[in-house]
Design goal:
With about 400 residues, this protein is of the alpha+beta class. Helix content is about 65%, strand content about 10%. Helix 2 runs antiparallel to helix 3, helix 2 runs parallel beside helix 4 and helix 3 runs antiparallel to helix 4. One of its GO terms (cellular component) is membrane.
Length: about 400
């Protein structure tokens, strides 16, 4: 696996393979021109071998193996058939080595190694058999070294090219992963903002709506009751404005984590229950929570769950709701049960999924705290049950 480069670091700069192949093309052309342009004429057979080799040289980028076979065959025919045409033989050897370089660049490494061995045997055979050189001659050593160097250069350029390509692929993958992570965090932040705004507004607006209806009914018949309802509306409005300011403050904090550091917890539940009772709903509240502080995530989640469940009870219930909060060694359980009422024509059902995002946000909060949410929906009642792990559970997990 390629080692990834540091973020922002430039990738290694290498010359493209077409540059090196272009250089070898120029060398091959120079070798052919030198062979043909000499004073002594080149035999027609050697010229034909050079022509076949030139065709292979053209094919080497698309079919390097076939090109090497053609050039090697032409080299063998020219070298054995007209050994006196030394410069033509040398040009054929140069073109054969050029094709070997392309094979090393584009073919399997084992194929390239086998092709290099075959070419080396062919060239040494021409030197020994056609030109009567010794097997241990310096030319034999030079041909073997030349072939090995061309093979090694081709494989090295290929390895460097593959390494840079792998680094580029890894960088692109890293960039995609970063984009996905940013998108995921933005989505989580958007959902958190939506939950906070919903929690801050929905409950208080429901209470305001009930008190506004009571004030309207009692405006002429019972001005004192109407004034009390208007006072409750004012108090509720101040509460929701305060919570919205807390949410906006967290959003404006530079480098803030967005945590619910300003959201009320269990300590604010009695005030929440009193506000619901003030709207005319009968609330039975029982709390059995041991001493000691709860984890912040659990503390906030309990308050938000009760706030949403009581809001649903105010809007859709029959005017009474039972709330219980209990804690044992491992879990803190919240249970809110209300009877079904008639919220008016067109009112949504709290359990139907059409009321908006209250239950969705509740599920997200409970899951984030490591708990479980159950909703019991019957024709006569609606019940929300939440189980949240305590600190001891998390430590032993």
């Amino acid at each position: 696996m390629p080692r990834s480069t540091p973020r922002g670091a430039a990738l290694p700069q290498i010359r493209p393979t077409r540059f090196w192949e272009g250089v070898l093309d120029v060398v091959s052309v120079i070798a052919v021109v030198s062979a043909v342009g000499r004073a002594e004429p080149v035999p027609p057979g050697a010229l034909a071998a050079l022509g076949v080799a030139a065709v292979g040289l053209v094919l080497r980028r698309r079919q390097p193996a076939l090109a090497l076979v053609l050039v090697t065959a032409a080299s063998a025919v020219g070298g054995f058939g007209w050994p006196e045409a030394t410069w033509a033989t040398l040009a054929l050897w140069v073109m054969a080595q050029t094709c070997l370089f392309s094979v090393a660049l584009r073919s399997d490494r084992r194929v390239a190694a086998g092709a290099a061995c075959a070419l080396a045997v062919t060239l040494v055979g021409q030197s020994v058999l056609a030109q009567s050189n010794s097997v241990v001659d310096l030319l034999t050593f030079a041909l073997l070294t030349w072939t090995a160097a061309v093979l090694g250069a081709g494989l090295a350029v290929r390895a460097q090219r593959d390494h840079v390509a792998a680094l580029e692929a890894a960088r692109r993958a890293e960039a995609r992963d970063r984009e996905r992570e940013v998108g995921r965090r933005l989505t989580q932040e958007r959902l958190r903002i939506a939950r906070d705004l919903h929690d801050a507004v929905a409950h208080t607006v429901a209470v305001i709506a009930i008190h506004a209806g009571a004030a309207e009914r009692n405006l002429r018949s019972s001005p004192d009751d109407a004034a009390a309802s208007l006072g409750a509306i004012r108090t509720a409005a101040r509460t929701v404005v305060g919570e919205m300011q807390q949410v906006l403050t967290v959003l404006r904090e530079e480098g803030g984590t967005g945590a619910d550091t300003t959201v009320p917890g269990m300590a604010a539940v009695p005030d929440l229950v009193r506000s619901v009772r003030a709207s005319g709903v009968r609330v039975s509240y029982a709390e059995q929570v041991g001493p000691g502080d709860l984890p912040q995530a659990v503390d906030v989640t309990v308050y938000r769950v009760l706030q949403e469940a009581l809001t649903n009870a105010v809007r859709y219930g029959d005017g009474s709701v039972d709330v219980s909060v209990s804690q044992d060694v491992t879990l803190l359980s919240v249970r809110v049960t209300n009877g079904r009422g008639h919220a008016g024509p067109g009112a949504a059902d709290p359990g139907s999924g059409s009321t908006g995002f209250g239950l969705v946000g509740m599920q997200e909060r409970v899951s984030a705290a490591g708990g479980r949410l159950r909703v019991e929906d019957t024709p006569h009642s609606f019940e929300v049950v939440v189980d949240l792990p305590t600190e001891s559970t998390r430590q032993t997990a």
